[in-house]
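Today's session is about reading a structure prediction critically. Students often jump straight to the picture, but the first step is always the sequence itself: look for stretches that repeat, for charged clusters, for runs of hydrophobic residues. Only then move on to the predicted structure, which in these notes is written as discrete structure tokens rather than atom positions. Here is the chain we will use throughout the hour.
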Amino acid sequence: SSGTALVKIDGDKKVVFTNELLTGSIDLSKTVTGEQRTGKFIFRVVDDYGNIVGDGQFTLSNGESNVISGIPYGTKVIISETVDRSLYSTTHTIDGVQYTGTATQPITIDKAITNVSYINGYTGTTVLGATESQITRVLGDSDSSPRTGDDMPVEIIIALFITSLAVLTFTKGRTNRARV
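Below is the predicted structure for this chain, in token form.
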């Protein structure tokens, strides 16, 4: 904490001691690359003793950022991200130095702003516009996505409808040319 102490010496001589707590901030940003850039990613910030720092836990989506302020100099913090590693590869940078993985090594707060950036690259597959996780849901995993009567996600039905419409349009055009 900050404070001032006044000490009088020999009546009219004074000595003033002032202590000021220096604090820094972490500016944490999020970028998602690849075909699936939507969704929220959970972040957790703790000190090296496991105590929550700032808001403690929050979510970020592609292009968002969060500033955690008021962290005393000398504090070591660890930032971790919860992400499906089967669908995303994760790198992060700390003041421009790149690392691999979802958790940082301890970051010592020793300046006004420390810039941390998390980058997730989508590595899953997409078939007819459906992501790997949507395809998995069709095969039986439970999820809260909208369902049709035959247990097929709406996204798949729409993709099949559009494909069928394109085939019919192409076939009709060939039939009309054959009659001429």
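Discussion point for the tutorial: Residues 154-179 form the longest helix (26 residues).
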